[in-house]
Amino acid sequence: MQLLSVRKDKLSLYFVANLYIILISKQGYSNPGAIGMSEESDIEKELKAIFGPDDSVDEDRLSRFVRAEKHSVLGFLVSSVAHDSNNLITPIIGLAEAGKRSAEEIGDTENAFLYGTILSSAEKLNELMRNLLNFSKRGEFTRGTVYFNQLLNSVISLYEFQYNSKGIKLVADLNDVPEVDGYPGGLETVFTNMMQNAMHAYGGLPKERSKNVYVRSYHKEKYVFIEFEDDGCGIKETDLPRIFDAWYTTKGSKGHGIGLAVARRIVKSHWGKILVDSEYGKGAKFTIRIPDKHAVQVMREETFFGPRREPASEN
Ligand SMILES: Nc1ncnc2c1ncn2[C@@H]1O[C@H](COP(=O)(O)OP(=O)(O)OP(=O)(O)O)[C@@H](O)[C@H]1O
Ligand SMILES: [Mg+2]
Asked: Which residue has the higher pLDDT, 215 or 60?
């Protein structure tokens, strides 16, 4: 019950709890009044209720509590900011789009360019916020049927223009794949992140260099495979083990390092995996492997009843 009420005022509780830690480490568990907090606040009372009276506080328990609160407060802050920013960005995108369109209609190239710049920055910010929301688990995707090729085609068409303007050849080889039950919006985010990373893989490389990105889909042995292969900068061996870590980026201020962390979480929610193969300087291949309906059924059963045993063969 007490912990439930603690949740109500996470932020202030967190700061007060931190203050308690300082008090304990500097002067033992003395009365907060001793450093100028004359009246005991509700939060202090709550803390005392959780950790006991002045002389019986367990320092280790308090530290662990503060650590856990810190993580949940950060997650809470991140998701709140991301959620509210999303609402603010939407009208910016809409207005910039409208401005760009009307400037183009009257042949005002200067303003069309300015609106275009606002639009692409706002879209980038939107993408970041969407990733942050997904990362902090407050991103909400609706369950539905995943039509892989449909999603891939829509993401590809979104990027066609940018790829063209950068001289990147985009080759799609989409084959018959079965639909699965899952989160179409989530997988669209995954494919978007992959397309974006492949595009960035050519940043800073000589113009005349070959630039080919292949997107493939196929169904093999009860799995749907989606591949994104590029012949860009590739990934250093030392970076490979870290690229799925949240906030790990080699793009400096241009990257945030959450695209792959989010992608992995979403693919996992489809019982899937992301495999990566890369040679530094030659390119990278990301393979998303998602079990089809039959394979998911087997996995579900195995989770509940343990691995299936094959019937003993008769000689
Ligand atoms: N196709 C690729 N080619 C080369 N490196 C890649 C590729 N895809 C991912 N990486 C490496 O993995 C790192 C992490 O990728 P991730 O998408 O998580 O973050 P990011 O692209 O840096 O930033 P953002 O969060 O904006 O997507 C990248 O910084 C890059 O070093
Ligand atoms: Mg990325």
From this structure: 215
